[in-house]
UniProtKB/TrEMBL annotation:
GO biological process, one term: chromosome condensation
One cellular-component annotation, GO: cytosol
GO molecular function per UniProt: DNA binding; structural constituent of chromatin
Alphabetic keyword roster: DNA condensation, DNA-binding
Species for this entry: Streptomyces vinaceus
Protein's name according to its UniProt entry: HU family DNA-binding protein
Family statement: Belongs to the bacterial histone-like protein family.
One Pfam family of this chain: Bac_DNA_binding
Coiled-coil annotated spans: none
Length: 92
């Protein structure tokens, strides 16, 4: 499912206009991105939580030459599905 399909389904379910649903979805995604970028976590009970994870520096290899290359430490986004979400996926 892509964003437009999600907007269509939510619009049908809530009887709200597609433009309104698009605006709310964009605002929600922007808010989640901003919060996580600032180092906060976002918890949506029953769905899951978004947070920042730290990646340690490590050694990798250049796939072309096989030469060892140092990969710098960095940050990544983590998502952990909530129990209700996991249960609904496993119920099928």
């Amino acid at each position: 499912m892509n964003k437009q399909e999600l907007i269509d389904l939510v619009s049908e379910e809530t009887e709200a206009s597609k433009a309104s649903v698009n605006k709310v979805l964009d605002a929600a995604l922007h808010t989640i991105k901003s919060a996580v970028a600032e180092g906060d976590s976002v918890q949506l009970i029953g769905f899951g939580s978004f947070s920042v994870g730290e990646r340690a520096a490590r050694m990798g290899r250049n796939p072309k030459t096989g030469e060892p290359v140092e990969i710098a430490a960095g940050r990544t986004v983590r998502f952990m599905a909530g129990k209700a979400f996991k249960d609904s996926v496993n119920a099928k």
